[in-house]
Amino acid sequence: MIEDKVYAARSILVVGAHAFDAEVIAGPLAAVAANRGATVTFLHLTMGEQGHPCLIPDHYCAQKEKEAAKAAQRLGIDVRNLGLRDAFLPNDDETALKVCDVIRELKPEVVITHWHGSWHKDHRAAAELTRTGFFFAALPTLKRSHDAHTPQLLLFGENWEDDDGFKPEHLIDVTDGFEAWSAAVHEYELARGLSSFPYVDYYSALYRLRGCLRGTRYAQAFAAASHSWNAGAGLFAPPAAGNRKP
Ligand SMILES: [Zn+2]
């Protein structure tokens, strides 16, 4: 089961377009995994500094860096920030190499990012940058400061802005991470009324809804990479026991 694979990982990397995206895509899951001993890292490609109606981006960026650090502390995880420009996240190989370098350095078994079907251009870019960064990280002939590394699983999390074609293929029990998630997101002004979108209501209800279908109090939904992606990345499932050669 995907759930067993995720919670067996020693290292998990979650890549979000803006600080707060990784928190909703995989925050409760991160809290559970960290509590079980995994090293979980959120990589914010941008801080989402253009999203405040009154503060100038530099000031909001500083605020969000503090909020992200406090949220990470609540979840028991590490946080990184590539410092790229909100609303102008470049979708190119140079940026994908930055994601590749983080994957090679942290050596996660599991990587989680946005689903590609999003109205938001930065989210579409983040989805593609992570897939390309994953591909670069695994490429042994590509010399970087860290050796090549192939994560074992790529998943796409659920985000209200990324709903075009998203299918909740895998439901993962995150019941034990819900309280930490709730405390973590409330560190952000975004969850305390800054946005007209009711983030906390939406995601609390969503995790409960997924939990109803999973048979637990709370669950998070994920879509898997395609079979051809997994085959291309060398991520074949092990053969059935009866088919193994002696
Ligand atoms: Zn976002």
Automatic annotation (TrEMBL):
Domain of life: Bacteria
SUPFAM superfamilies assigned to the protein according to its UniProt record, in alphabetical order: LmbE-like
Full protein name: PIG-L family deacetylase
Lineage: Bacteria, Pseudomonadati, Pseudomonadota, Alphaproteobacteria, Hyphomicrobiales
